[in-house]
Design a protein that fits this description.
Elements lengths: L7 H11 L18 H12 L9 H12 L13 H16 L16 H4 L19 H15 L12
Helix pairs in contact: 1-2, 2-3
């Protein structure tokens, strides 16, 4: 993890054009066909063209999403583009802690409109289900990150909820 800061142009393409088609899309974007993080990476490469500042990969795209939404490590150029995903995750965490049911989406078709729902119904990054379109090894990455944070906090159980 780490590297060059994403530019404003990269953030705009990622959050406004591609995440609405990703495995973590929300609300009205659920009508979009789900695309993999590898697809997101290929689209980033195509859309950035000669202005690409990095080699985009599926794991890198998911990692960028995860850091900004789940771990609240916000990119300096992100502005508020990630806000609806971050807010949905935060609300899902509150519902899980209070054992409240998930709300129906804006269209009223009964599909949950949270990042947690599109991640397999779990609000905690440590127990998030791996979508078929997540890059291989993402579950291990999430589990390892949660375990590392838990050990830093002196916890033996790594099923933690990061509240930011």
């Amino acid at each position: 993890m780490g590297g060059r800061i994403w530019s404003r142009a990269e953030e705009r393409i990622f959050w406004l054009q591609l995440v609405p088609h990703s495995p973590r899309r929300l609300g009205a974007d659920l009508q979009n066909e789900e695309q993999s993080w590898e697809w997101v990476a290929k689209q980033m490469t195509a859309k950035m063209g000669d202005n690409a500042r990095r080699k985009y990969t599926g794991l890198g795209a998911f990692e960028h999403f995860f850091l900004n939404v789940h771990q609240c490590r916000f990119s300096p150029n992100i502005g508020t583009m990630h806000y609806k995903y971050w807010k949905a995750e935060k609300e899902a965490k509150k519902r899980k802690q209070g054992n409240q049911p998930e709300p129906a989406d804006q269209a009223g078709n009964g599909e949950a409109s949270t990042a947690a729902a599109s991640a397999g119904g779990s609000a905690s990054p440590a127990v998030a289900a791996e979508s078929p379109n997540e890059p291989q090894g993402v579950r291990a990455l999430v589990d390892n990150a949660a375990a590392e944070i838990a050990s830093q906090n002196g916890q033996t159980d790594h099923s933690i909820v990061i509240d930011c």
